[in-house]
User: Fold this.
Amino acid sequence: MQLQTPNSSLRKQDHEYLLLEKLNHDTLKSFSVSLKRHSALSSLRLAYRIMGLWTLLEGFLLLANALAILNEDRFLAPRGWSFAEVSGGRTKSLKGQLIGLIYATQYLRLPLIVLNAITIVVKLVSG
Assistant:
């Protein structure tokens, strides 16, 4: 895109102008990309602030689901996590508390099913 002129100084000026124009175009393009990235990050942060409590509740529901499906015979007893091992006086230890939590979530499977259904409906409605 260089102009055909007899004067070599004009060609040099045109060349410098084209370089400067390309530099400005690249600078504006990178600024535009960083501005788009910044606006996307700020909208993502806003979404995390808005959905923070819902996401936390979903996380607890997933954890409760994971604890509710643990099988005592196949998974817990071979590892020493059966309820019979801590039913004595060792229920105050951390291991005893965790085993009690596992058995409580297994006992409350019906409310977990209801909460899962509510969560699915809310997700389907809200998108």
About this structure: Residues 1-50 form one domain. The mean pLDDT is 75. The two ends are 51 Å apart (CA to CA). The chain has six helices and no strands.
